[in-house]
Amino acid sequence: MARQIDRDLNRFREIVRGRVKHDLRKYISQGEMIGRTGGEYVSIPIPRIEIPEFRYGSKNSGGVGSGPGENGQAIGPGPNDGGVGQAGDAPGEHIMEVEIGLMELAEMMGEQLRLPRIQPKGQSNIVDMKDRYTNVRQTGPESLRHFKRTFKQAIKRQVASGIYDPENPLIVPIREDRRYKSWTSLPTPRSAAVLIYVMDVSGSVTDEQKAIVRNEAFWIDTWMKSQFKDLEKRYVIHDTVAREVDEHTFYHTRESGGTRISSAYKLADEIVRKNYPLEDWNIYVMQFSDGDNWGEDNAQCVSLLRENILPAANQLAYVQVHSPYGTGEFLRLLKSEFSGDERLALSEVRDRDGIMDSIREVLGRGR
Hints:
This protein starts with a helix and ends with a helix.
């Protein structure tokens, strides 16, 4: 019975997983999972799942072709028949919510978008010390007693002393026989990464653009967490001046005024230099903008990217979100200045339906 229950449960999980994968583009584009997160799981609404079966009507209940009738006779209840339009007392169809782990969602997205695993840059890792039980010693706590080694030692002692009786092999370990597991601390490398989000919050950025940014950033976070055990996130917003903020402020701030992207590049470079040695950290910069920038600032942006940001980063992703007020010129500038540079991923999102394709363009290089 237990085996049958396990098989049924596994089958149900596969059905749910298949349904989520089928609707994954909708979840990504509409952001239905955002706001449902709780720890390492998200709650996902899916339609009720039913197993197909034949359903038979009542015998001799009549209907079309079941007997003679008169011209003009109604074959169904009319608008004045009793009961039509009345409140019902039967249960309706309900939406079921299931919990799925973020790492499983990352795996689904990776399969859908065919994302390569990220290869950490060079020797960029941090070393942890991990205990492994590889030795045996004569002293230690009882919780670490090695029972097999203890009894082997007791048998050796009895055989050596001549008291071992093969007809009545009674083995009673004494204090000198006891053996205990002993550990050794070994260095274990672990890859670490920092993800620096940069967003334009000038007057030309709309609330819809911010919703698109939040949806895409949620999925980028989910994938990056599946690739790195240690992932730190930093948030930078800017108009003509940049400042570092917390996550909530990043997604909810809107300011007026112009745009000077170089201010954000300078702050991101400062954050990296002060906090993240390149030999220990994988550096990622995710920039969101409507493509507007003060024209005289473009040359400084190109210089900062070429000399500071790109040499330090595994990758900088520039995502341009379409705006009715923006010109989109900055994307054309980057294409012109950095054509073929694998360290720079460029993407353009016109609406929510373009989020999934943008994620593929941003994460598809495995850098």
